[in-house]
Amino acid sequence: MTSIPRSVSALRLPPVLAGYLTALSRGLLALLLPLGLLLLWQLIAEQQWISPQLLPPPTQVLDSLLELYSSGELASNLGISLARVLWGFAAGSAAGLLLGVAMGLSPRVEAYLLPTFKAISLVPVIGWVPLFILFVGIEESLKVLVIAKAVMVPVAINAMKGIRNVPVGFFEVARLYRFSLWRTVRKVVLPAALPSLANGLRLGLSNAWMALVAVELLASSEGIGYLMVYGRQLFQLDLVMATMVVIGVVGLVLDQGLQLLERHLLTWRNSAY
Amino acid sequence: MSAIGTLSLKHLNKSYPVKGQPLSVLEDISLDIQPGEFISIVGSSGCGKSTLLRLLIGLEDQFDGEILLDGQPVKGPSLERGIVFQDHRLFPWLTVEQNVALALENSPLSEADKRDTIAQHIELVSLTGFEKAYPHQLSGGMSQRVAIARGLVNRPRILLLDEPFGALDALTRAHLQVELQRIWQAEGITTVLVTHDVDEAVFLGDRVVVMQPRPGRIKRIVPVPLPHPRVRGDVRLAALRDDILADFSDAPRETLIEQPAPLPQRFEDFVLAW
Amino acid sequence: MSQNISKFDPRGLVVPLLLIALWWASAHWGWADTRLVVPPLDVVAYAREQFVSGELALGLVASLARDLAGFAIGAGAGLVIGALLALSPLTDRLAGPSLHAVKQVALFAWIPLISVWFGQGEPAKLVFIALATFYPVLFNTYEGIKSVRRELAEVTRVFGFGRRQTLLRLVLPAASPQIFAGLHLGLIYSWLGTIGAEYYLKVAPGVSTPLIDGREHFEMARVLYGMVLIGLVGALLNAVATRLEQRTLRWRPR
Questions:
Q1: Cβ of C15 and A249 within 8 Å?
Q2: What angle is formed at CA B127 by the lines to CA B124 and CA B129, rounded to 5 degrees?
Q3: pTM, entire model
């Protein structure tokens, strides 16, 4: 598929060096646009073409990011947010796995539960927030509940699909060797469905992060989303933007971390990983 | 200087860069093909026979040596050369008729002539009545017939076949070989068939070019001096087959396959996410 | 996907009916806080009232118009930019990484910034809905075009197709399943974005109003009505998109 570009091979560089050169040129090209935009942004802000209240200069955003960090505010608020994500993710993925595996293994369970599950998942998380607030108030349990709902849906769906897509032949092999149910699940179903399960968990985690931000914006007095609300109320856009950067970076780290784990666990699927 | 459909290869050499080093895949291939002749090229995988076909059709244009069709050097793809690939490569969103018509996109024919020639070629491959079918409704053999009609519809000077029946079951394959013989005789077109099936090569070819791998080169050229249409089971064919098979008596070298790229995520995984 | 829809299995009704019975019973005999567990019929009555007074139609029209306008902007941008990135490697290398980086910011984290830049009114809502739609459409368009089989591209080369012909005859049809999938996903996200925009930005007529008011006045019936409404509209949008997709992609197996 990927033949070496002619220009590079013609140069007859050692392949490693040629690889570095292409990577370097790509990296520079990728930085061109953001750097240009940053420069333009700084210029606009410095010349006050747009009020700094609406567009604080990038340097100011960086300053408030550093200040958030050095004052310890970032660490404490991020810690609170991550703890919420952890609990919500744990609860949601446990419920999702249980539901998904049960529905995947048993057509009867699916017949009874899937329509209800679909109805629940049809209402987006934001739609559930008022109901949850009325039931549990706006304290920690609200956040965990909202995040758990956001996590449960993709985890359950992917678990169910993963199991449903295990080739029938594998089950026949298990029956041939008279595997017990537990052994079949452990030796056949789980390994075969693992890629799909992992996919669901990854989607769940990214949903968890999104739901956390959503719920903290609505009702919270601490946490990363609250920092944004605070910055917005004081009209400190630099704080808002700094928080957005943090949210982006943490989201990326969470996703990449899980992806790394997935690759580690699923080496049999594709050794090119 | 010659009738239409003369193909001549002169000292063809082709190499790919692999990890910065050139790896020779074809070495000094020379061959003259007469108008209307049926040439089979047979060899084990990795002998460069498919690469050779890609050079002839013009999908690869980096090589040393000369390829002349009726005295003119081959450069890039052209409607004068038709091809049938192993994986039929029909466009799944087009019907049988539209797939054949695809080959006529850049043809100078009038719309009416195009319609006529499409119908003729669908008839030639015995698929009349299936014009409006989509590829997913066709069996492997039917798909390959459509591909043959598509390859011939421009009335090219030569037809190239790249293991066209390699993915079919044995019965369908045998049937299509007879069909191909009939079509070739009806059209009288110069044909080059690449295959790893020695039976097929001997059954269809006027001459069989036996290739050797690493690097790919011609080991020998075996004439099959029997008139067409041929009958399967002819002892003379069997004797030639056994003779050629003796060339492949060494066990093939075992290697691990390359990893394919990971599949993109499916859409359905997302639908109910929120 | 489609064969599940056509076959109705009454076993699926058991759990919802049990839940409603439990709900009715606990409201009837006062097993739980009566403010939390309102009688099911209250919800029905509220829905009727909304329907008769025209509030329902008003909210629906407002939300759907908002949703479709935001979807059109976001999907249009996603299609154009996705196609551009997939067809031009230079553009891809220039802008691709930046777009990926911006995507990392969770959707709702844009709300405060959008509210400062575009205010709380309709423009801000459209921007948010368009943003929610943009990325799924962008990535699926990009992936769809990128995954056009090289083997089929060779066929067009053999037939001497030019750039335009290849684009119209090969690339767009081959990518269309995934492009439609992206549009479908974008439609679902735009509905999520609509609810989010109505919820976080200044209140305006729409389907989320019962949710917001119901929570403020602690009226469970209103909240439940709002949830059902949102779910039904979402299901409807999904069904319409699925139908359109199937109709356009009839050439696909199954």
A1: no
A2: 125
A3: 0.82
